[in-house]
Amino acid sequence: MTQTYFPFDSGSGANVTEVQWQEMAQYWLNTGVIRSVLNELEVYADSTGMQVKVKTGEAWIKGHFFKSDEEEALAIGTADASNPRIDRVIIRLDWTANTIQLAILQGAAATSPVAPALTQNTSRWEISLSQVNVGAGVTTIAAEDIIMERDFTEIDYSKHKNDDKAHTRHIAAKNASESGSDYTSGTSLFVVSSTETGWPNSAGTVVTHKLSNLRVTQWFFYNGNGNATRAWVRHWYDTSWTPWEQLHGKALGEGLRVTSGKVSISAAAGSNGSATITFAKAFSQAPNVTASLQGTDLTNYGKVGAHDITTTGATITFKNDNTVDVTSIPFNWIAVGQG
After folding, report:
1. Three-state SS for 143?
2. Which of 23, 37, 171, 339 has the fewest CB atoms within 10 Å, measured from its CB?
């Protein structure tokens, strides 16, 4: 049996290879732009010719770190005279050349153009920062030609097998106008103040539960007064938020409480699978409980729901539409009710 260990200043663990480092670093973050660092590698255009500009920022790609500490201008190829095309601004990790660089991935001109495919294999891994609409015969790229499509990093909990703890991420505060697609999957929270805009109040905690870019639920809990508490909820579907709906406004101790967690469920092919969850603290009355498959890939999984809800727990059930048995499928759940 081989025992491997690193990094150290000397000895067997001193000579760490690229493959070893990548194997270790994959447990830290998944691939994407690092949120709230510098200018998050934002791409923009300002009608100064056939070019786009990439602001400063950092990224984490397959266990490798990338940083750009100065704004970069990237040239866009000459527009086709007859048809438009779509280019992409990318970060390219090249394991053969041992480089990570900003680049333009040029698309093909067509009557109905599509964005060029990203290369993601054992030699090269590309991630997209934005799409660039290049109109037929244009000589400059304008601000409205940029379509951002960054994915941000988060801890990849699929590599951390701990089903006993809820995985809730603390993220940077946002304005209420930001779209549901800007949030990371799973459960996240942040605190807002008078600096952020559009929230039901200038002081509060926001809890967001995201299943996919089509399904986001968000709660706002007012916490600016020690003698009172209020809560609101809204939902994101596809392209817009519903209006805020106030859930309550009562004295402290009579208000809502939120608790969340994670559970693994197995199911035979074509059958339902269930698991019982228990709340860490009982509610005063049965809460509302929602559950979602961890991540955003819902392929071959049917409806997920909570039932038999009591003040102390609930049952989470999902339909396995696969043709094979599945085991230990991770689900996130969240319960909101009277404390």
Report:
1. helix
2. 23
